[in-house]
Amino acid sequence: MTEALILPTTRDEAWRYSDVAALEGMDLSTFDDWRDIEVPAGETFRDVIAITDENTGPDETVLHRLRVRLGEGARCELFGLIAAGRLGRVEVVVTLARGSHFELGGVTVGGRETTREFVTRMAHEEPEATSNQTVRSVHWGKGTGNFLGRIDVVRNAQKTDAAQSFKGLLLEKGASVNSVPQLEIFADDVKCAHGAAIGQLDESARFYMASRGLSPELSRRLLVQAFIGDAFVALDDEEQREALMQAALDKLDRHL
Q1: Which of 176, 175, 122, 178 is nearest to 153 (CA)?
Q2: Is the pTM of this model over 0.90?
Q3: 3-class DSSP state for residue 196?
Q4: Tens digits of per-residue pLDDT, 62-106?
Q5: Which one-letter DSSP state was computed for residue 21?
Q6: How many Å apart are CA 180 and CA 121, to the nearest integer?
Q7: Which residues, including other chains, have CB under 8 Å from residue 158's CB and lie 6 or more apart?
Q8: Residue 251 and residue 256: Cα distance in Å, rounded?
Q9: pLDDT tens across 193-203, in order?
Q10: How many helices (H) and strands (E) does the chain have?
Q11: Secondary structure class of 85 (helix, strand, coil)
C-alpha cells in the first residue's frame, strides 16, 4: 500500500508552502488516515487538537486529517494549537448542510526550521449555513506558519455566510507566514469574506509597557497573548481555553 503512495509536492496547491520533505520521516501507512466526524441534525460537536512539546518530538511530523459532515442545523467547533514538531499540519474538510455552522480557531507557534499549518476546505452545499475561521500565527527563527483556506459555495447554497481571518506575527527576521484564501462562489445571495495581515510587535506598545516598568520579556508575552486570543475567543470552556493559551505562551518563553 505504502509503496504505491505518491507523496505531495510543493506543486500541489494545498502543500505549496509546506515542508514536504518532512513527510519522508513519518509512518507513511498513516498518511491517508482520515478521521471522519458525523454531526447529526441539531447536535453540537467540539474537539481540541494540541500538538505540543509534551506529546511531540522536535523532529517529528504530525498530521491530523479530518472530514466533517454536518447535518441540518448541526454545529461543529474545532480549536487547535500547533506548537511542536518539524512539520505539524491540521487538515480539515467540512461539508455543511442547511443551517449548520462550523467554527475554527487555530494558532501556530514556533521557530527553528519548522512548519506549522492549518489547511481547510468549507463545502457549503445547502442554503443558510455559516462558517467562521480564525487563525493566528506567531513565528521566529526560520519558523513558518501557514493557513490555506478554501470556501466553495454551490449554486443553490443561498444565504451562506462564510468568513476567514488570518493574522501573522513575525518576532524575528527570517521567520515567515503565508495565507492563501480561495473562494469559489456560484450563489448570488451570500456573504463571504476573508482578511489577512502580517506584521511585527507594536513598538509603541512595547515602549509604553517599558515606561511602566515591565520587562521586555513580559511585554512581549502580554502582546502575544492579546494577539492570539482572538483564535480561542469562541471556546467557552475556560479550562480548555486557558490550557491552549498557556501551552502557546510556554513555547514562546522557552525559545525566545
Answers
A1: 122
A2: yes
A3: strand
A4: 999 999 999 999 999 999 999 999 999 999 999 999 999 999 999
A5: G
A6: 12
A7: 127, 128, 187, 188, 189, 190
A8: 9
A9: 999 999 998 88
A10: 3, 12
A11: coil
